[in-house]
Design a protein that fits this description.
It is a single chain. Helix content is 82%, strand content 0%. With 185 residues, it is mainly α. α4 runs antiparallel to α9.
């Protein structure tokens, strides 16, 4: 009975106003003049895509530097807070640039992107990486002053760093596969 109830609720959500509103918003942006310009201009899409790739490289590279410190493989003579204080401002600026450029790429073919499993997986993985970061910062890092100068941080910090590495590599891999699997036409 519970499965039926849940399925009925999800069916109502899908057929209801929420999904229609989401489809209307996606159609609005995909049919906008900006999306047309991105799609049809020979230089605009590759330029935005290049900015997106560079921004992702900065995001992943800077996060990797922090993760390698959490794993005890790099910058072991610097405290974790010193490493993060020097790197995370760059990470957030690059992330904002990646989101903005990714949003522009998305609106150029929103419905095709949403049909692409690698695109959906990329978004889910980014969400998982964000959740991993939040759990680390709000739970695992509460006692960071006690261990941040140790060359090998405690297991929870190493786990967060290792999981972050795996998630961000997966994000990059899915992002790359999007281009090879997009439905044409």
């Amino acid at each position: 009975m519970v499965r039926y109830s849940l399925r009925r609720t999800l069916d109502c959500l899908h057929a209801g106003r929420v999904m229609q509103l989401l489809q209307d918003i996606i159609s609005y942006f995909e049919n906008s003049g900006l999306a047309d310009n991105i799609r049809e201009n020979d230089l605009l899409f590759p330029l935005i895509e290049s900015v997106h790739v560079v921004a992702i490289c900065l995001v992943v590279g800077s996060i990797l530097a922090v993760d390698l410190r959490l794993l005890g493989f790099a910058s072991v003579h610097r405290s974790v807070s010193r490493v993060t204080a020097g790197i995370l401002p760059l990470t957030w600026v690059a992330f904002a640039l990646a989101v903005a450029s990714g949003g522009l790429l998305f609106i150029s073919n929103a419905t095709k992107y949403l049909e692409n499993g690698y695109f959906v997986a990329k978004l889910v993985l980014i969400g998982a990486a964000g959740l991993n970061m939040a759990i680390f910062h709000f739970i695992s890092a509460k006692d960071m002053p006690l261990w941040e100068n140790q060359s090998r941080p405690p297991f929870q910090a190493r786990l967060a760093g290792g999981l972050s590495v795996l998630l961000w590599i997966s994000v990059v891999a899915c992002g790359r596969w999007i281009g090879f699997t997009m439905r044409v036409g």
